[in-house]
Amino acid sequence: MNDPSTLLPLARELRALRPSLGPVRLVAVDGHAGSGKTTFAARLASALGGAPVLHLDDLATHEELFGWTGRLRSWVLEPLARGETARYRAYDWVARRFAEERALPPAPVVLVEGVGAGRRELLPHLACLLWMELTDERSWERGQLRDGPELTDFWDGWKRAEQRHFSTDPTRPRAQLLILQCKEGYEVLPGPQESP
To answer: Distance between CA 196 and CA 192 in Å, rounded?
Structure first.
């Protein structure tokens, strides 16, 4: 089920794009929390032959759910633009602090996945913006089932924060491609913006 080989045509299309950040084609995977971004990004990375993936959950914090743009710029975007390996400290959601350092090499395609990955400030650096096509309510329901009842309070706060974010900086209208999860793989549909 959801064999990464079904994403090979998309992988070829992304590799054929012009670099957007130094030597890198930066591809954003955005969508509501629980929409399947992380799983899809892992499968797309596999179809791309092991492309690096940056998870925005590693840059966000409890206090700054969407306040990670400065960290992304200095820790990741600037080094990649110079063709250097980016190094960033991943946030530990249990210990509530930045901990483990991780490396992100300037590969031909680098994926960045997370809610807000297609925000306005990042658009100039993106080769392509993908949107996971699943409603907010269905996504949140899936996410809450995944995380369990002990995170109910977190999800209540998260949903309000996500609604505020997308009300002022909506991603879907800017997406070049929409990703629809199917029983067998994914369907890639044209987005509201022109295809890359």
So the answer is: 12
CATH code of the domain occupying 4-190: 3.40.50.300
- Residue 11's SS3 state is helix
Burial of 182 (C-beta count, 10 Å sphere; 0-12/13-18/19+): exposed
Q: Which two tokens stand for residue 137?
A: 């309510």
Q: Rounded to whole angstroms, how far apart are CA atoms 142 and 17?
A: 33
Axis crossing angle, helix 152-168 with helix 136-147, rounded to the nearest 10: 150
Domain residue ranges of the chain, discontinuous segments joined by +? 4-190
- Token look-up 């032959």 returns 49
Whether the predicted pLDDT of 160 surpasses 70: yes
Count of alpha carbons within 13 angstroms of residue 34, beta-carbon side: 18
- pLDDT tens for residues 1-38? 445 568 999 999 999 999 999 999 999 999 999 999 99
In angstroms, the CA 98 to CA 59 distance is 8
pTM: predicted TM-score of the whole model, two decimal places: 0.94
Instruction: Tell me if residue 120 falls in helix, strand or coil.
Output: helix
Lowest mean pLDDT among 53-57, 105-109, 184-188: 184-188
